[in-house]
Every structure is written in structure tokens, then in C-alpha cells.
Amino acid sequence: MRALLSSCACFLFLLSVSTATVLAKDAKGPESIALENFALGKLDATVFLPKPPESDSPLFQYDKQCYDQGMAMRNTERARQAARDADTSILPEYFSEAFGMPISKENMPVLYKLVQRVRRTLGEGARDYKKIYGRVRPFVQYNDGTCFPKAEESHRKTGSYPSGHSTRGWGVALLLSEINPERAETILKRGMEYGQS
User: Residues 102, 96: contact at Cβ < 8 Å?
Assistant: First the structure.
């Protein structure tokens, strides 16, 4: 539960920064300066984003239990979905079914561009906080492989907290559920699955 709340807090902060960045780039006039300052990271998310759990804490043990459950699903359809979800560059397409229509450059170019922009900004924001917290990724800590081997080498050098997938998944899900509220439950479920991948 704490991990979910942490991801939500991080997401909300990063989404607001992302939205402000989009608005600042598109706005004209003095209000754009205020938005741009907000987007440049004048807020400190470490004030409300808790530190990752210590290795001897019950929360860490819970994280390990979740990791073990994920490893036990390696040869299942859920693991194959996680491998597909690992490629964040096509994130809008992963939400198409939940959204109820294809989110692509061709079908919905404005929404596609917005989702890609939010995805990039949330990813950059999560990376900044990964540097602060420096939590080792589980596959590195336990000397395991992942479901997406081609990214393992680059991911060995980056932290695992806050989760970039959870931040992006929740961020995009909340954005899309506001745009298409009739499909909000399905979209949010997909966001949760994406974060768990």
C-alpha cells in the first residue's frame, strides 16, 4: 500500500510538472513564466515522497514478496504482457484498448502527442528522484534476469525508486480517465497493471 501511495504522490507531482511544461511551451504572456518556473522543478518532491524502505523493514520484506511472486509468473501470459509493457516508447498504444479507441499518431495525433509528452516528462522526473534515493533494482540485488533483457544493462546503472513504470502508468491512466471518464475504471486498471509490469 505504501508503494502505491508513494507512486501516486510522485505521479501527481510529476504530472503537474508535465502539464505545466506543456502549458508553458504553448502559452504566451506573463502567466507562462509562472508555469515555466513551476515546470522547471521549483518544488521538492522529497518533502512528500517517502524514502524507500530499509532492507530490514517489514515494507522491504513485502517488496521482496511481491518480487518473488512476479518471478514465479515468468512463463505466463502476464509475464509476456510485462515484457511488452517494458517498451515505454509506445505507451499510448498500450492504453488503446482500455481507452476504447486506438491512440496513435494517425487516429488521434493531438492526444498521442500529449501522452508521449507526459510519458517523457514523468520518466525524466522519476529518473531525477531515482538519483536521489539510489535504490538498487531488485534484479541487480538478487542477481536475476528480467523479462526484457535488452534493457538490463542500462537499467543496472539506474535506481528502482520511484518506479518509472508506476509513475508513467498512473500518470497516463489518470490523464486518459479524465479525458474519457466513461472508461475510467478500465483505464485505471490498465494503469495499475502497467505499473506492476
Answer: yes
